[in-house]
Amino acid sequence: MKVTEKQIKDAAEIIRNGGLVAFPTETVYGLGANALDAKAVAGIFATKERPSFDPLIVHICKTEDIKRLSLEEDPRVHTLAQHFWPGPLTIVVPKSNIVPDIVTSGLPSVGLRMPANEIALKLIETAGCPVAAPSANKFGKLSPTTAEHVRKQLPELECILDGGNTVVGVESTVITLESDGFRILRHGAVTAEDLAKIIPQSKMPETTILAAAAPGMMKSHYSPEKPVYIIGEHSIPTDKSNAGLLSFGFSANDAYKKVEFLSMSQNLQEAAVNLFGALHRLEESDVDFIVSETVPENGIGIAIMDRLRKAAYRFQDGDL
Ligand code: TXA
Ligand code: MG
Description:
This protein has helices spanning about 5-15, 40-50, 65-70, 75-85, 100-105, 120-125, 145-155, 190-200, 270-285, 300-315; strands at about 20-25, 30-35, 55-60, 90-95, 110-115, 130, 175-180, 180-185, 230, 245, 260, 290. Helices cover about 30% and strands about 15% of the residues. A hairpin with a 6-residue loop joins β1 (about 20-25) and β2 (about 30-35). The protein is an alpha/beta fold. The strands form two sheets. The chain has an eight-stranded mixed β-sheet, with helices on both faces. Strands 9-12-10-11 form a four-stranded parallel β-sheet. Threonylcarbamoyladenylate binds next to β4, β5 and β8.
């Protein structure tokens, strides 16, 4: 752990006093505030320039907190928590009255997650309160997988706990539970297959959910400042001499100005870890646009393609 006990203690103090702290999780860096303090949570929305209709995930460090944050006990929540927590799974449950409306954007439900990161868990434990935290980036922009990425987008932040590179690389899987099983609201490292092994499911859900029931499901999101084109899905400018390639090792690279390899060995986990870092580097480089190869849509590859399509969407929609 690069972060000292003292830094965590100071960060926890900031959270207790209604302030904001950026901290690492296993997925991406989060921008945290006391989830039970509506005013502190308002600070998250202001700093991120996030619309108030986009609900936040509440991070906890012990499963007992499920009880006080949710309204009714669904035994499946505990089964899921046992199997996947700490880890990259957010479970949306009916919320209790102690969760301020601003956290959930007025929804009667709240997303709960216990992150698999020592610094995050220690911070939540020391703060002594659940921590509401979206990804620590400006709304709609690239998610941060290093403390440097957070600094780039949110330079005004006083406290950023630097835990190095995140180890999963894409945001948590978000699910809701329905009478006949789970529904995936956002794809992540925990896949539908993983979930179906643990809780009864009458039929496997669609792998790609397009209905916009939650803002993270919006078609445009996770966007770099430059146009993104996906090979095989968009028509790509023929002159690549000013373009960057996001490569999974499939196409010839010579035509491009800059190439970022997601994984030389075509390993999807590695590609997920490298995805946002590679996009951040291409965003900062002197290329004019970004071309991306596709990755196989299985396992975490589903989440990677979801993020890539959202990164590309606004540029394909004529909205530059
Ligand atoms: O891995 C992650 O989940 C990271 C780290 C920091 O934990 N957090 C993150 O938060 O990605 P954010 O705010 O960028 O994305 C949260 C997603 C959004 O798509 C939001 O719409 C959805 O979770 N969400 C949160 N609460 C919800 C609710 N009550 N109902 C439906 N969707 C919800
Ligand atoms: Mg986000």
